[in-house]
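for the writeup, i need someone to sanity check this before i put it in the appendix. the sequnce is what the collaborator sent (i think, or maybe the updated version? ugh). structure was predicted straight from it, no edits. if anything looks off just tell me and ill rerun, i have time this weekend
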Amino acid sequence: MKAGSTLRTIFALLVGCVLLVLVMMLGTYWRLKYRSRQAGDVLVAEAWALTSASERVARPPHTDSPLPGTLHEALEPLMPELDHLYEDGRMLSSDNSLLQKYEDVQHGKRPLSELPVPYRELFERNQPLIQRALRASRAELGGLPKGLRDLDEPDHRWSDKMLSKVLGLAALEARSQLEDGQAGAALETCLDGLALARDVAYGSGILGAESSASGYELLFHPCADALGRAPPEGQKQATLALRRLREGLRPLSWAVREESVSFSLGLVGEVLAPEQLEMLPEGARYRALHPPVSCIQPRFESIYLMHDWPRWMEALQQVAPIMDLPSEQRPAHLLALEQLPGSMWYLATRPASWTSSYEESATRVDGQRARVDLLLALALVKAHRAEHGTWPTTLPPLHPERAVLLPTALKLQPAEGDTLRLIPEAAGLQELALTATP
């Protein structure tokens, strides 16, 4: 009798423990479900905000007489031809020796006469197309064609590297015009190219921001040469255009916001509520329902995702404003976020230095801003020289009318042969220094 009572007591305790564990598991599940639901609401709102912001971009046109409408509308008729251009260039790039020579010419390490014949033919065949694409940059409003933005359908009709090919050939166009003595035309090509590269960063995430910065790397020296040789009136017009371009450069924080949303959509479509999926913009909903193969998770891992992805989205939201801080302040703020993946269940396998890629992107965008400021400074000191016959002793104000994000501190340094060096004060940017000649 006593043994039976003991067994019943043990059984009751075991049942109680099992029920307690089940209640705790159910409570944990519902807490995760509730937090995931809240994060899903934030995701829907962000997807709509970013989609709307990327369709009609209000940035200052770089010309006094902009084309009516959006960049999307101006580029859309050219997209099939630009696609053929991209494919032709991609086929040529399989020959590494030719590609290296082509890139050396782009960067000014070789003269245009050494451009490999296949690339010369590609360039000459597509010059009218390049000129039309550059002219599209004069649109009153920005906004990339559908299929190039981060929150469009993932099976893009167009390669996200398409416009990078245009910018590379634009650099060749400017060099060709300079060799023909057409400094004014070369300067116009450069300014249009910089404007198109600026617009690449709107709506295309981190990769778009890096492609935009890469376009400025390609065009920087041809633009400096064109500015140096342009007549005073051209330099004056360039000053206005460069200030508008600098004002219109998109903060990198927006690209991180887009990555936060696109990453989440590719990962957690399965754990979003049906009504949340229905509320997403069309492109965002397609991404959620058709994730990349690398993001497809087994169903039993859904509970891990419900725990992790809201935390990861919050982490990226914390990264975003850090991207717009001065370079000397970013590392400490990013380092404070390094340990965050350790609190996750599924995404804890991410590398400990996961923030390093964001610092690399921010460094490239620092260089992009510095290049515009250096070109602007070059135009200003050349104008001063033309008016007064001497170089200025102090740098004229770069942005006197409107504040810009992270203006570049520059110093003037007289050099040999009555030249003037324009040098960024930040050590990491000093390799970009320009020399102004009489």
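The chain has a mean pLDDT of 87. The longest strand covers residues 410-415.
thx in advance!!
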